[in-house]
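Structure, all two chains, one model.
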Amino acid sequence: MFTEIGRALTLIASRDAEVWQITGVSIAVSTSAVVAAVALGLPLTYALARSGPRGTKIGMWVAHSMAALPTVVVGLTLYVVLSSAGPLGWTKLLYTRTAMTIGQLVLALPLVVAVVLGALHRLPAAASESLVTHGVTPARRMGWLLWEVRTAIASGAFLAFSRAFTELGSALIVGGNIRGATRTLTTYVALEYNRGDDARAIALGLILLAVALLANALMHAFMTEQ
Amino acid sequence: MTGAGTTLIRTRGLSVGYGTSSAAVVPDLDLLAGIVWHVTGPNGSGKTALLKTLAGLLRPIAGRLEHQLDKGSGGAVYVHPTPYLFSGSVRRNLWLARPSPGRAEHAAGSFGLSPLLDRDAARLSHGEQRRVALARAIACRPRLLLVDEPEGGMDEEALAAWWTCMIRAIEEGDTALVVATHGQVAFEGIPVREIRMSSNRDMTA
């Protein structure tokens, strides 16, 4: 086993082209999913928070439920929708990185919404009232309030990245682990480990761990800064 | 610009409160500019609800409210008893309603905030935060300034500066001040009228 780990570290050190290609795909797909989740999640969350206690409560409930969705269920659902017989089969997105990004977006969005909605809900009513009474326009109000919860936005984004980056079920089902295209760190480790190249699987596992820990460290550094 | 004596808000049969909870009945008002309106009454008599309703932050529960003012610059501005300051500098807070730089700096100067403009608002003392909130409101040049318990956390000097500022605005003739306080409100030359909120409440569904 130690020889395997040794070979894995050598692979990382030798800058094996395939190892880095796979790492690149993983980071690109998960980062796109998180960027999309934040871009869609912020206006959505703000609208939920503004809709009053009832909207906040329902939004929280839905976001928490969706955050618990098993990744394989998301993958399967997306597979059915995107497969050639499915309603969006014509898009020919199945087994592409775009499909993987959509799957991870579904996994990431609820985390962004849950964390940011909680933070907006905890802001004193005086924050929003101060903006209204000073005649600040609705569009600028959103900017001011979201800026007040920027730490929560960062925290939600990092959590979402961790979930997206480390998930296997959806990436495997809608990506298909196609070498050079949709093969990611998790799909490779899961499928290739027992098929032969143990050292490469371990190398990818270590990189997966390192990136996840790095994202976590960045989040903590940011939170401390704020 | 209209001068003293303009009716800014007229209320008839107004009841104020939060949502469907119990409401407070407000005596009929013709809020004129150039006057300090002193809202009195025991705790829970609806003083804050009245101020927020006049500011347009709460809907009246019943009755009529003829409102001729917008919110913010040149309109009605409400100042909370515990104001919320946004993260960042005092300057950022004073520019909330995008007043002209001169106006914001003037308001800051009136409250002795000029040396604090680049300080982090979150690190100010409670009294300083209140001064920022009042300067922020006054920088809007409101025609109706509604202040909820201004004395909290402010020392006498700051309070005196605030009253001076308000009196100047009122004397210029186009502003009315509505202030809810348990403290004394008495000035030479400025008419003060009391709005007494009673502790008796209607229960409305």
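The helical segments of chain B are 47-54, 90-94, 101-110, 126-138, 156-171.
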